[in-house]
Amino acid sequence: MRQGWERFLRAEDEPAKQYQFAELLNAFEIACAFCVKKVFVGVSHELLTEYLDDVMHLLDTNDDAKSRLEALIHSPTTFKYIRRYLQMHPRRLEEARVVSGSTFGGNFA
């Protein structure tokens, strides 16, 4: 995922930035699915969860990320594993403040 962030930050024009952000969010969705489906356990699960929480915070607090994310949501099932991850961790959901009218709108409630 670090390479995805690098590609996003290096993109030279707006369409390329949005494309790279979409690719990054798709990888983030897969990482959330790994947690939801309990693919990893122990330390690997712990580290992935901490990373996901950090990204959730970024998505909630960065205005550019919020607007890019909102443009990617096309249906109630868009990013369904991000939604499920947040539902499994209500404390994290509240801390990220993702549902309360910002980043993901009401789609993750």
Number of strands: 0
Strand content: under 5%
Question: Level of helix content?
Answer: over 70%
Which H/E pattern describes the elements? HHHHHH
Instruction: Give the structural class.
Output: mainly alpha
Return Rg in Å: 13 Å
Distance between the amino and carboxyl termini: 26 Å
Contiguous low-pLDDT stretches (5 residues minimum) are 98-103, 105-109
Main sheet: strands, sense, barrel: none
Tally the helices. Answer: 6
Notes on the protein architecture:
The chain is an all-alpha fold and 109 residues long. The chain has helices at residues 2-10, 14-36, 42-61, 63-72, 80-88, 90-96. The chain starts with a helix and ends in a 13-residue tail after the last helix.
In short:
This protein is mainly alpha-helical and 109 residues long.
Topology (SSEs and partners):
Elements lengths: L1 H9 L3 H23 L5 H20 L1 H10 L7 H9 L1 H7 L13
Helix pairs in contact: 1-2, 2-3, 2-4, 2-5, 3-4
